[in-house]
């Protein structure tokens, strides 16, 4: 065990959890109507709790167990069987590696929340998210990070997929799942209501930015120059994408919005994620500059041309950003084209099929969507019996 590596990954684990609680909750919560903000908080918090338990029960073993095959890790490490305080994963205590990866298993299904806010049933959120993490996310983790079929020497050749911190594993899977749910669910009854609290959005985005240092820097799994470089390029990409999003918005609409500025931040962060362990600061600058424009155009296409109500633009920002960053690894000659594109296609098809099947299966157990009256009155009071703001008290 290396003490410095262990100390850094303990901090990184806390930072990645901070991304979901409270970062993502505030970012998403500020973007919805006031009558639905508590439901968003409820979804984020509940998913964090449920994924933690499921990761212990089976998720970690499926992703990082060594008793399975190239397709999954088996159940040998279910309930952390055989893992104690002296067990090591590289230079880290294995239980710390478990905890660090658990925070990724929390935020990935939590990202999908943005596609279905304001109109989805709470029961569906819980059952679907749990099954999706176990049956879609955990196997993909094994394929790319756990020694599975897409690593070096796997089905794509001697050079496997390069995905440092989750462009495919986290952002492509969550983005595609979000898009499919949005299509199946159908649009909200009222799509024109503006964000109820842009201040929440900015605070949440700022927390995500800070937490992302743990996300990308922690993925080095060591306290060394590689972690420092990952943090640096992450910051540069986020800063650049924020400004290019705002500039593009100013050119197109005459005004640059604060919500747009911080959405650009997230686009830059998602885009640099797969490449953060490989690129230099100049390459990060290029990735961020393109991401701010590319992801904004993706928002316009999905919203206005395809007329899909992916409420908080999960696929356009996370999905497109993660896919773009994964491709840029090959563009810069830091990975093989066959592996990068092949990995995107294989994981994309798998995610789409598993997500669609799970939607149909879970819909047989619990309603997918709330009724019209509940949607009109808001999920906070109708589903959870609470209001976020009581002006008469």
Explain this structure.
It is a single chain. This protein is an all-alpha fold. It has one domain (3-384): Ammonium transporter fold, CATH 1.10.3430.10. Helix content is 69%, strand content 1%. The protein contains 13 helices and two strands. The chain has helices at residues 3-31, 37-64, 94-116, 122-145, 167-185, 198-217, 225-253, 258-272, 281-305, 314-331, 337-365, 372-377, 379-384; strands spanning 88-89, 92-93. Helix 1 (3-31) runs parallel beside helix 3 (94-116) and helix 1 (3-31) runs antiparallel to helix 6 (198-217). The chain is globular, with a radius of gyration of 20 Å. The protein starts with a helix and ends in a 9-residue tail after the last helix. The model has no long low-confidence stretch (mean pLDDT 97). It holds the Pfam family Ammonium_transp. It comes from Ruegeria atlantica. It is found in: Cell membrane; Membrane. This is Ammonium transporter.
- Residue stretches low in confidence (pLDDT < 50, at least 5 long) are none
CATH superfamily: Ammonium transporter AmtB like domains
The proportion of residues forming helix, as a percent range, comes to 55-70%
Number of domains: 1
Q: Give the second-level CATH assignment, the architecture.
A: Orthogonal Bundle
Number of helices: 13
**Based on helices, strands and strand pairing, what is the structural class?**
mainly alpha
The CATH class label is: Mainly Alpha
Give the CA-CA distance, first to last residue: 55 Å
H and E order:
HHEEHHHHHHHHHHH
Large-scale geometry: globular
CATH topology: Ammonium transporter fold
How many individual β-strands?
A: 2
Largest sheet: 2 strands, antiparallel
Radius of gyration: 20 Å
Roughly what fraction of the amino acids lie in strands?
under 5%
Mean pLDDT: 97
